[in-house]
Design a protein that fits this description.
Elements (H helix, E strand, L loop, with lengths): L1 H13 L33 H10 L7 E5 L5 H10 L2 E6 L2 H13 L6 E5 L12 E4 L3 H12 L6 E5 L10 E3 L5 E5 L6 E6 L7 E8 L2 E8 L2 E4 L1 E6 L2 E7 L5 E9 L2 E8 L2 E9 L1
Parallel strand pairs: 1-2, 1-4, 2-3, 4-5
Antiparallel strand pairs: 5-7, 6-7, 8-9, 8-16, 9-10, 10-11, 12-13, 13-14, 14-15, 15-16
Helix pairs in contact: 2-3
Bound molecules: S-adenosylmethionine.
The site of S-adenosylmethionine has 24 residues, from helix 3 and strand 2.
């Protein structure tokens, strides 16, 4: 815990948390201390400016359900509801802190949309979230990563200060300290048979994937060629290929488990197709 404390306090020194002099840490019932120990990580609140930037980069809106893992005094969940109209749940292990967070939500007038629950982030189910926010530690992000990657494709994840090792972010906030943003990618790797992609011949799309990075090839009849500029965002994949007469065509696909639907565009036509995983 000493190492973690020094680590996080160092981040705190360089963060905008000091600028929160007017921030009320606690109330008559409970006054938490900055840097106090928590189950897996100490409590330090994210600075107000970074909270807003984290929710903005995740494009949080009224249809979202935001989960803040390790919610502290509830400030991220409260901001998600108050500034962005979302519903939000904060999971906080420390019962006094969780109760303070709920009282803060009441004082902020958003208790109808915010719940701060007492619980362990490694035991509670947060898979219904459309947005997950984190201010934890690198190793905790790593432990959560498999669960996050199994969430619904398109779920947004934002982390204050700490990255996800070799899962590269889709966006970054240059504060400092930094924020990192990811979109959970669909699992698209494998062989996809595409119906009605080409009226004359069968089409197979072979994809390999590392997180949101995708490569592969398209086989139409006997001709195989690489896909170009592939971009996977959640359940949506876009790529290009050069057709047999040298035209660049763009393909957009939406994955739903083992089914896929898509559209192919060239300068002179749009064609819809569907497919399935072989
Ligand atoms: C660095 S603070 C972040 C607080 C808040 N998310 C924010 O950004 O302002 C981390 C919080 O996680 C809580 N915590 C630590 N381990 C936890 C666990 N296993 N489950 C739930 N909360 C935990 C701590 O008590 C602390 O309040």
């Amino acid at each position: 815990m000493t190492k973690k404390l020094i680590f996080l306090l160092a981040f705190f020194v360089f963060s905008n948390a000091y600028s929160q002099s007017s921030y009320d840490f606690g109330d008559d019932k409970y006054r938490p201390n900055m840097g106090q120990s928590g189950k897996d990580v100490i409590w330090i609140p994210t600075g107000n400016e970074l909270v807003t930037k984290m929710l903005k980069i995740a494009n949080v809106g009224p249809s979202d359900l935001v989960y803040d893992l390790g919610a502290g005094d509830g400030k991220i969940a409260i901001a998600a509801a108050r500034e962005f109209g979302a519903r939000a749940v904060g999971i906080e292990y420390n019962p006094e802190m969780a109760a303070l967070g709920q009282r803060n939500a009441e004082r902020a007038g958003v208790a109808n949309r915010v719940k701060i629950i007492q619980g362990d982030i490694f035991k509670e189910d947060f898979t219904k979230a459309t947005v997950v926010t984190l201010y934890l530690l690198p190793e905790l992000n790593q432990q959560l990563r498999p669960t996050l990657l199994k969430m619904k494709p398109g779920t947004r994840v934002v982390s204050h200060a700490f990255d996800m090792a070799d899962w590269q972010p889709d966006g970054e906030i240059d504060n400092p300290p930094k924020g990192y943003f990811w979109i959970v990618p669909a699992n698209v790797s494998g062989e996809w048979a595409l119906d009605s992609f080409d009226s004359k011949t069968s089409t197979i799309l072979n994809l390999s994937q590392k997180f949101q990075y995708v490569g592969g090839n398209l086989t139409m009849g006997k001709k195989m060629q690489p896909i170009l500029n592939a971009e996977l965002k959640g359940d949506k994949l876009q790529f290009s290929y050069v057709d047999d007469i040298g035209n660049l065509r763009t393909v957009r696909m939406t994955f739903n488990g083992t089914d896929v639907k898509g559209e192919e565009n060239s300068a002179y036509m749009i064609r819809s197709f569907s497919g399935f995983k072989r």
